[in-house]
Records
---
Amino acid sequence: MQLEGSTVVVTGASGGIGRALAGELASAGARLILAGRDAGRLGAVVDELPDGCVRETCIGDLTDVADRDRLAAAARRHDCAVLVNVCGGNRFGLLDHQSDADVDALLAVNLAAPIQLTRALLDHLRRRPSAMVVNVGSAYGAIGFPGYAIYCASKFGLRGFSEALGRELADTAVRVLHVAPRATRTSMNSDAVNAMNQALGNAADDPEQVARRIVAAIRADERRVVIGWPERFFARLNQALPGVVDRALGQQLRTVKRFATTHAQEEPLS
Ligand SMILES: NC(=O)c1ccc[n+]([C@@H]2O[C@H](COP(=O)([O-])OP(=O)(O)OC[C@H]3O[C@@H](n4cnc5c(N)ncnc54)[C@H](OP(=O)(O)O)[C@@H]3O)[C@@H](O)[C@H]2O)c1
């Protein structure tokens, strides 16, 4: 997919990965429509970018249909060629520490919002000579991890959506790319998550590395990207021999529970 001169919509552009991605896309010559909930944070991202590459910004909650429709209208107006669904959140903790509202909110932002936004833009994208939908999932969209039950449900769902839609659109010029980052140093991860990852020896990437990999995958028309060697291996192992991964994660459960319960009260729903 050619990025130079193409209009790209980035949701979650006010967050860590979205912000880095906006920078990489601007360097690749793309025109940008940037979406986020927080006007101040999104404005700071725009200020860092070269003049003229941002065509429009859209402030709103993408779990809200009216805000989503506003973004879709802006995307059509600027003849968007690529939609990158980055926005998302997490609330690390055991399932019985999550409220009804937590469950609904996480599934809405991580799963329903990207599906609905994609659906709203599909007619437009299909009419273009080439187009792409990029869904930013997670390594936890292929490996169920304790303390992440709802997050995993949403990201497994996003991966399934991406695969099915990609196959559904195989006879069109719209490509679907699913990217699964591993732990990334952004504010989505609370102190408890960072401390747990350190205790378990889980590697973490900088958002700039993730953004560069996403842009390379868009340019190369890739379909599936899992970032990180052990994560790629464990995703495959989990599919082929889930019992082996059950046992490996069983040995980490005490550590996960220690961080999930001692820090449960301070976890934000981001
Ligand atoms: N960080 C990681 O370890 C990691 C690992 C794998 C995958 N990912 C995935 O990468 C994506 C980006 O994560 P990140 O680390 O960059 O997180 P982040 O820094 O917390 O950014 C999240 C972004 O999503 C936006 N957002 C959240 N809820 C929203 C809503 N209801 N409506 C509209 N926008 C909303 C936020 O907007 P405001 O800031 O304006 O509210 C922000 O721009 C997520 O899908 C996440 O699941 C992250």
---
Amino acid sequence: MSTDLSGIEGVTYPWDDYPAPGTVREVADGILWISTPVPFVGLRQVNLWLIRDVAGWTMIDCGYGWDETRGLLETVWKEALGGRPITRLIVTHYHPDHAGNMAWIVERWGQLLPNMTLGEWFAANVSMNFGYADNIKQRGLWHKKHGLDEQRQRLFEQEVVPYDVGVSLPGQFKRLRENDIVTIGKDRWRVIVGQGHAPEHVSLYCEARKILIAGDQILPQITTNVSTWPMEPEADTLASFLETCQKFLGQLDPETLVLPSHRKPFRNVLFRLRELGHHHAARLNVILEASKGEVTAGDLLDVLFRGKLDGHQIGFAMGEAIAHLNYLVQTGRMRRVDTRDGTWRYAKLDGFDKPVTLEL
Ligand SMILES: [Zn+2]
């Protein structure tokens, strides 16, 4: 596949705006789009989906666990379901904007079993009880080791939103696995498990109708957060993410309508996937160029991110910077310098000048 994307038409958006709060928009026969607010500055909103099912509706994702979302959902359920109940809940991944209201929805509709992968179920429960990727103390020490300056570290500590603030979990779930077929109404939706953003993220693909419910795995306009977290410090999450992009490229029809979790539904998914490869290659090259001597992930924030980061964003930015450094280490372009003071610094390997290309 060519890396030259010039002259190829980019992503297109069939709808110019979002459904108003508390309303739905039908994006395909029997598929309704809901947009709900999140408390994170850059993200703004998260999309939830309702799919007409045999006896009721299947709902995809739960929204952030706060009153704003619960109020809007009550309105939608009253007005848009035609008097039929929610009979199934599918959760793409454990993050608070997707899993937040899980327990509330489960109880509200009479003990549904949320359908999700084992990895996401575990991640949700470990986050709730032990912090997991969100262990704030461990993340603080990890940032320090990676050279984050004091001022940003303080901002992180003040503003980061812990997992349990926006999530409530039920006690049971139903497991989804790669390539499972979930029949919703008359349609067969295939589970595609993705990596790099969350441990076992679920996307659902209806091949016959050429529709992908992408979750956070493929987003337009913004890029999916790909972070390395302190409990697995050498994880090459970027390689995992790119592997999933490659898998999508091999499976999706070029005409697919993508229903992402953030921003608006779009077309030209193959272009978007290749564009994501280019985006990450460009970031890797920015790091290589900025690495004159030894650098830390903390040094790279000003190089990689424009504009002021709030405390919550600083955590994600550090995770992303470390993920990109790990990729450069794993692919033999940089090495971690062994330093006695406990700070993790990185340096380019001698004789390495060729820019990274990621041809998806
Ligand atoms: Zn999300």
